[in-house]
Specification:
The protein is mainly α. The chain has five helices and no strands.
């Protein structure tokens, strides 16, 4: 039986990006950035607020911001993919879930809006029911709603017939 490695073999850039993302999102990184700005502001009088003094902070922040945009986007893409895979696993594992929802993130925005309309319709059906957990699909919700309406109509007809019988019997007794 082949052993499953706990840590996959990741390349240099993957390790570097993960380390930098974790480090820059930490409290020490925020404190260091704040202290650097304080030191820069405090050094202004020493350098007579010269253009070179201003260029140091402008160049530094622009360069760091430019690189961080890509690192943050990479981290968000990875996190988003991991979350989608976990959700896909949950959908695939749940017996009442629709497997049509696996890989829904690959659909177009128009397709997602259509699915949203379906779930809005399910919500409308289930709000009319006693329990919000009774149905699992649009078809099932619609069938249950129609069945309930048919039963209510039958009860109304039966109660109407009984009321008519009572009226007839009470008129006959007079």
């Amino acid at each position: 039986m082949k052993k499953h490695n706990a840590k996959p073999n990741r390349g240099f850039f993957e390790k570097f990006a993960t380390s930098v993302t974790r480090a820059t999102g930490s409290t020490p990184a925020i404190v260091i950035a704040f202290l650097l700005v304080i030191i820069w502001v405090a050094s202004g009088p020493i350098f007579h607020y010269s253009n070179a003094w201003q260029m140091i902070i402008n160049t530094g922040t622009t360069s760091i911001t430019f690189l961080m945009v890509f690192l943050i986007q990479k981290a968000q893409n990875k996190d988003s993919l991991a979350i989608q895979l976990k959700l896909n696993e949950l959908v695939a594992a749940h017996e009442f879930a629709s497997n049509r929802m696996v890989n829904v993130e690959d659909m177009t925005e128009q397709e997602l809006k259509i699915i949203q309309k379906y779930y809005t319709k399910i919500s409308e059906f289930t709000k009319k029911e006693e329990s919000l957990q009774q149905s699992h699909s649009i078809d099932e919700a619609n069938a249950q709603h129609n069945f309930k309406n048919e039963m209510e109509k039958e009860l109304e007809i039966e109660s109407g017939e009984k009321s008519a019988e009572i009226i007839i019997k009470s008129s006959a007794n007079k």
